[in-house]
Amino acid sequence: MNTILEPLLTPDQVQLTDADRRAAISKLESAVRQAALTPSQATDRQAQVLAARTRGELRNIMSGVANAAPPRGLTVALQAFTGVWLVACVVQFVVWLALAVLGHFDGPWWLWSDLGLGAIVAILWWTNESYHRKNDVLVAP
Q1: What residues does the DUF1707 domain cover (predicted)?
Q2: pLDDT tens digits for the chain (141 residues)?
Q3: Is 64 contained in some domain?
Q4: In this structure, is residue 139 part of a structural domain?
């Protein structure tokens, strides 16, 4: 279960994969082509990317390169909504279970709010992950 929740609760602590590193290096090369970085800056950052271990470290390395890493606010929102979602799921399930034990069994009413919050968490996660999957950066003209 920890491997499922880790990208949601601590997205900056997720270990970098080879695909993450390749995408980051690709973004640095794209930034050089678009004159957002000099070749020497990109080379220095590429060495740092290869040494980085987590996505949080990668965020620091990619700072200053537009659209290369998820904004800090996005990861904070992902963590906050995930925490709220998990607490809501557990509390509502426990209340529903207690009511069922006491003879007031209704359908799983708690699913509606949990699915709604879960959809928000899914959208935030997908957006956060998209920064790690794209291979180029978009620089405003």
Answers
A1: 16-63
A2: 467 788 888 888 999 989 889 989 999 998 898 888 899 999 999 999 999 999 999 999 998 888 888 888 999 999 999 999 999 999 998 988 888 888 887 788 878 888 989 999 999 999 998 888 877 665 554
A3: yes
A4: no
Identity (one letter) of the amino acid at 105? Answer: F
- Residue 15's beta-bridge partner residues? 54
SS3 136: coil
Paired with 60 in beta bridges are: none
Cβ atoms of 30 and 45 closer than 8 Å: no
Under 8 Å between Cβ of 121 and 84? no
d(CA 41, CA 37): 6
Q: Domain range for residue 116?
A: 2-133
Residue 116, token pair as written in the block:
């709604």
Q: Is residue 140 domain-resident?
A: no
Q: Could you give the CA distance from residue 139 to residue 141 in angstroms, rounded to a whole number? A: 6
Domain assignment present for 67: yes
Q: What is the dihedral angle through the alpha carbons of 63, 64, 66, 69, rounded to the nearest 10 degrees?
A: 0
Contact 95, 110 (CB under 8 A): yes
